[in-house]
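Entry 12.
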Amino acid sequence: MHKDYFQLNLHSKCTCVHYTTRVMRVSLRPLLRIRLVFRVVGVRVLAYLIKSVLQVNSTQLQLSYGANFVHDGLGAQIQRQLSIEALANFLGVVHISKPLEHIAIHPLDPFQSIIEMQDFLAAVNSEFRFGKNHALELPITHQKKKLNIYGLFVLVLGLFIKRDTRHLSVCEVYDIVDCIPNFYSENISPIRFPIKSEKNFPKHNFICIHFRQGVGGKVIYPGQKLPRELDLGYFTKTLSRCDYEGKQILVLTDAPLAATTYKPVTNQRHLWEGTPKFENGTMSISGFDLTKGFRAEGFDVQVISGGNPLDALKLMIQCDTLIMSRSSLSYSAAILNKKATIFYPPGFWHPAMRDWKK
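Predicted 3D structure (tokens):
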């Protein structure tokens, strides 16, 4: 439970525990930083060692995305796809592109059934060419939900000793790629994803702001330490740093205008169990009038609430300035947008590329 949920009393046991924990955290902070530095350096050294071994080894390794391990949002799954493809390019091994098969349906998505979701994914797979390969795909020999540098080292060592071929299906490689600077910009080709513009999209010189709210109220989701939602003031202050005069400003958000409730489709109800504000099969979502909020700070914006998430992603990939949220959707767009000025949000759990602004 988060410490701010307690009403502390100076004479309570709770206070003593909280105070002791805080003292320990402060006193151990330098040691934790040293440990983090050693971990990052260790990952980088091993990653380049593995790369060198693979370059002189005549055996074959294939990497692919194991989409069957987890079902969540579009942005999260595209980011995993990008990370695995970038890792394969970094190592100089074969990447086998797999199509997306399932995503979590969100309250403001234009598709609200499994059949409609599958039609949507067909468009996503076509746009990003997921599932199209030039190399001959080998049978999957290894499957892992999460791969760290030591697991990769053991796999490559076995590959080197036995001189065979292996196909690793993996869901997450963040323990590796998040420790290597500029990893995506150096290992993802801009011509790999030729995104097509829609007719109703702005032609040029526009700004995108991604406001990820979730259910609202700055709730902290399971497995995370910070809320995804950022203060409106962060976005208005960041926007004031941009050359915004005369440019179209698009705010892309999952926040509804007014408070509402949402019942997930039966097949996906288990994806929402245990998440904040989900009770008895129904999720409560806070409303947010973003148009009014931005105008109060002197910014004339166009708010797109919900709608096709692929269109939102494509807008962020093609804009000239992107103000990210703590979200894989805008993170993936920032990776693929090679021309924009990218503003990286504070406290995000994935690292910024070197040319992103903080």
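Annotation: The CA atoms of residues 163 and 309 lie 44 Å apart. Residues 1-26 have pLDDT under 50 and may be disordered.
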